[in-house]
Amino acid sequence: MAKEGTEIAEETEQMIDQKEPDNPVSAAVDPKEMRAVVLTGFGGLNKLKVTKKPMPEPQRGEVKIRVKACGLNFLDLMVRQGNIDNPPKTPLVPGFECSGIVESVGENTKGFEIGDRVMAFVNYNAWAEVVCTPLDFVYKIPDDMTFSEAAAFSMNFVTAYMMLFEVANLREGMSVLVHSAGGAVGLAVAQLCSTVPNVTVFGTASPFKHEAIKHSVTHVFDRNIDYVPEVKKISPDGVDIVLDCLCGENTGKSLTLLKPMGTYILYGSSNMVTGETKSFFSFAKSWWQVEKVNPIKLYEENKVIAGFSLLNLLFKQGGCNQVKTAVQKLLSLYDQKKIKPVVDSLWALEEVKEAMQRIHDRGNIGKLILDVEKSPTPLVSDVFTSTWEVLKGATEEESDKIVFLFLPSQKKI
Ligand SMILES: NC(=O)c1ccc[n+]([C@@H]2O[C@H](COP(=O)([O-])OP(=O)(O)OC[C@H]3O[C@@H](n4cnc5c(N)ncnc54)[C@H](OP(=O)(O)O)[C@@H]3O)[C@@H](O)[C@H]2O)c1
C-alpha cells in the first residue's frame, strides 16, 4: 500500500538526501529548444528528468500553445510505473492536459487566434514549455479562469460529467458512492452532484481529508474501514450510482451496494499502485479479485455495469465532439459559479518527483499542478530544517504529530 504518516517522513528524508545538486535546466533561451519533463524508462521517480527538447511546430489542424500550467493526474503515476495497457515506448514526455496561450496556429485551424487563452488535452507531451495538439482537443477558457484552474479542469470535470450525466443519467434525489473523494476527480464528482437537487454523495477518503471535504460530500467514510455496512446503515437499499476507481475486491462490494436500476462504473485501477515501481503481484491480485459478472444475473437484478476511459474516448474512439459538448456545459456551470476546480498545490517542472510522491502518499486534496513558470523551491527550507532538528530528538509518538503538523505547510498555495 502507499505509505502514510512516519513512513512519508522517511520517504521525504531519502528524497532530500538523494536530491541532485540544484541544477534546474534554465529557461530555454534558444528559440529552437524548450524545457520538458522526460520519462526515460518505466519505473521509479529516478526515471523522470527535466531536459531540453527541440521546439515543436504546429502541423495542419494543430495549435501551438505556450504552456503555463499542466495537470498531474494519478494516471501519470501509473504511466511512470508502466502500469497501463499497451504502454508507449520510452523516452516520452508525460502529461495529458495543459493550459496556456496560443502562440501560433497551423493551416486549417479556424476559430483559434494567436493570444487566445486555452486549455487542451494532449496525447502525452503535455509537461513541456510548448505543446502542439489538434484543435479538436483545444478549448478557449473564460477570462476569469486562472491557468492553474484551467489545467485542473478538463480531465477531472469531463470525466466526472460524462460518468454522472452521460453514462449513469444522474437525476434529482439519487445517491452516488465515490472513492478517493478528496482527490481531483472525487471533488469534481461531488461538485457536479451538488448541481442536481437532493443528491446524496457517499465518499471514502483518508481521514485527514474529511474535515476539508465534509461540505461537498454528504457522508464521508475512512477509506480503511469496510464502508458497505456504513452505507447500508444510512441507506438500507443501497445507492443508485457507484463510481469505482479502485478496482479489485472493490468491484464486488460495489455491486452489492447497487440498487435495482442502479449503475456501476469502473474508471480506474488505483489499487494496482502499491510501491514506487509496478508490482506484478498487485496487478494480478487486482484482476483476480474483480467480480466475474454473469449477464443473466444482471438481467435478473436490474443492474447496469459500465466502464469509462476519457483518454480512449478522445484519442482512440473519435469521441472529441461528445467531449466538446461536455466541456461547453461545464464551462457554463463554471460561469454560473456552480463548479470550481480545487487546486491542491503548485510545483515547478523540476519538482515533478516531489509532486508525484505527494499523490502516491495520498497527501493531495484536489489537483496537483505543474506550474511551468515557477522556480523550484528548495525542499530544505528554514521551516523544514528546524522541523527536522525537532524530529531528530523526538520520540516516535511525538514525531508522528510533528510530521502531521508539518506536512500541510509544504502546500505551495
Ligand atoms: N477513466 C478515466 O477517464 C479517468 C480520468 C481521470 C482519472 N481517472 C482515475 O480516477 C482516479 C483518481 O484520479 P485523480 O487523478 O483524480 O487522482 P486523485 O484522486 O487526486 O489522487 C489520488 C488519491 O487516490 C487515493 N488512492 C487510492 N488508491 C491509492 C493508491 N494505491 N495509492 C495512492 N493513492 C491512492 C488517495 O486518496 P485517499 O487516500 O483519500 O483514498 C489519493 O490521494 C484514478 O484511479 C485515476 O486513474 C480515470
From TrEMBL:
Keyword Thylakoid: no
Record keywords: Oxidoreductase
Cell membrane is among the record's keywords: no
Chain ranges of the Enoyl reductase (ER) domain: 43-370
GO molecular function: oxidoreductase activity
Region annotation (Disordered) ranges: 1-28
Family matches, as InterPro entries: ADH-like_N (IPR013154), ER (IPR020843), GroES-like_sf (IPR011032), NAD(P)-bd_dom_sf (IPR036291), SV-ATPase_mito-regulator (IPR052100)
SUPFAM superfamilies: GroES-like, NAD(P)-binding Rossmann-fold domains
Protein name: Vesicle amine transport 1-like
